[in-house]
Design goal:
alpha/beta; Gyrase A, domain 2; Four Helix Bundle (Hemerythrin (Met), subunit A); five-stranded mixed sheet; 14 helices
Length: 429
């Protein structure tokens, strides 16, 4: 096993940069630069020297194999965050025997292989590193904390008990089985099924937190949609003009609104039109507005044609700075910024409402595994009801469900998944 090293903190200038070394030669390698090593988990100030040449003065931190992230002996060198310092220390490490630069995600991969974390936690960690909003951070932390693994373990032991009960009836098929196991088996399966179904129901919300909440601004031409988008984005993302029918393409702006990742869409003004190009723009607007998680109807005193608001959509009156504009409910002015905070709060609370159902299942991979488990459990239930003759099939289906759930945390069939998951990691993680 090679010893790997990499810059663990972000590239570029910084106050302190952390270089991580992990593997069987981590301690000897660090000792050869630092002279001596502090006790594990104790920070020690050391001069890093290569061939009499001082590289830096660094804080050295060692972790024993049983108490490190990777499950291997690990050393962190906290060096000055100059690009030249980092480059010099990395170069010195590259010249030491048995050491090589880590591949993307390799520290985490070793943590997984050494059983320090499970596959769902790897994904949680990847999401945490990518998290840009408060909701994404919380969700990633929930997954990283190992809750998926704990749940999977719960399901696993219930299904193993069910399978064991059934297998007992197979073993004693020729004898009189003293008790009918079916009621207990069915109740175990029903509980797991209910739990899995609940998790599936929360998938949409969890995915929304991860991928972002799509919000379409819609309304009649010249309602001020593009001006509003620009005001929310804080930049001139869309062209605005007094000419009705300015916006044709759907303009997308990604932003953090109220702690949620939001993809805000500016769309063509809705009206009946003879203009072919404007008509295409309106079709696109309607299509995206239908698919969006939420629509903000920007009003100008008249009803918006061609599109009906759905329950939960936001109705807001525009150009509230103009005299004579009715400002009874929610109203906003993209021009002066009046009412923007209230609108943002409203969008945030709609997003929070939908996010509240989020469960532990955050990825398509999880959804698919739970889907497979549910199908297998349904068949198992059917076979159990069909009587003791079908015990073999019932047991096979139960084992299928267990395998599907095991793949959530990476107990089986993981090799092909690993490369895909780790390819999104950066070096040093
Ligand atoms: N007074 C005032 N004028 C506004 C406001 N918002 C937009 N306008 C003006 O209204 C006109 C239309 O604004 P846009 O933002 O282009 O409107 P739009 O809804 O995107 O229009 P289309 O893309 O053509 O559908 C422009 O002349 C803007 O300056 C506002 O809040 N107050
Ligand atoms: K316009
Ligand atoms: Mg526009």
């Amino acid at each position: 096993m090679n010893t790997i090293y990499a810059l663990a903190s972000a590239r570029g200038k910084s106050g302190v940069a952390v270089i991580r070394i992990s593997g069987p030669d981590a301690f000897p390698a660090a000792r050869s630069l630092a002279g001596s090593l502090p006790e594990p988990r104790r920070a020690g100030l050391r001069r890093l020297v290569e061939d009499g040449d001082i590289l830096d003065e660094a804080v050295v931190l060692c972790f024993a194999a049983d108490a490190s992230f990777t499950g291997e002996e690990t050393v962190e060198l906290h060096v000055h965050g100059a690009t030249a310092t980092v480059a010099a220390v990395l170069a010195a490490l590259s010249r030491l025997p048995g050491l090589r630069l880590a591949e993307p995600g390799e520290f985490t991969r070793r943590a997984l292989e050494n059983g320090r974390i499970d596959l769902a936690q790897v994904e949680g960690l990847s999401d945490l590193i990518e998290a840009e909003t408060e909701a994404q951070r919380r969700q990633a932390l929930r997954v990283l904390s190992g809750k998926v693994g704990a749940k999977a373990e719960e399901w696993r032991s219930a299904l193993i008990r069910a399978a064991a009960l059934i297998e007992a009836t197979i073993d004693f098929a020729d004898e009189d089985v003293p008790v009918d196991v079916a009621p207990e088996v069915l109740s175990l399966i029903a509980d797991v099924r209910a739990d899995l179904t609940r998790q599936l129901a929360g998938y949409g919300a969890a995915e929304m937190i991860r991928e972002g909440f799509e919000v379409a601004i819609v309304g009649r031409p010249n309602a001020g949609k593009s001006t509003l988008l620009n005001a929310l984005a804080g930049r001139e993302a869309a062209i605005t003009s007094e000419h009705a029918g300015t916006t044709r393409d759907v303009i997308e702006v990604r932003m953090d609104l109220g702690g949620f990742a939001v993809l805000l869409l500016d769309t063509a003004g809705l009206r009946e039109t003879e203009d072919v190009v404007e008509g295409i723009g309106i079709e696109r607007a309607l299509e995206r507005a239908e698919l969006a998680d939420l629509r903000v109807f920007l009003g100008d005193g008249e009803e918006t044609p061609l599109l009906q608001p759905r329950e939960g959509d936001i109705m807001v009156q525009g150009k509230s700075d103009l005299a004579g504009v009715m400002t009874g409910g929610l109203s906003v002015s993209g021009k002066t910024g009046e009412g923007l905070d209230a609108l943002v709060a409203e969008i945030g609370s709609r997003a929070a409402e939908r996010a509240s159902g989020a469960g532990l299942i955050t990825r398509e991979r999880h959804r698919a595994a739970i889907g497979r488990a549910l199908v297998a459990l349904e068949s198992a239930e059917l076979e159990v009801r069909n009587g003791p003759d079908r015990a073999e099939l019932a047991s096979e289906n139960l084992r299928g469900a267990i395998r599907a759930l095991d793949s959530l945390v990476g107990r089986v069939d993981v090799e092909d998944l690993l490369d895909q998951i780790f390819s999104s990691f950066c070096i040093g993680k």
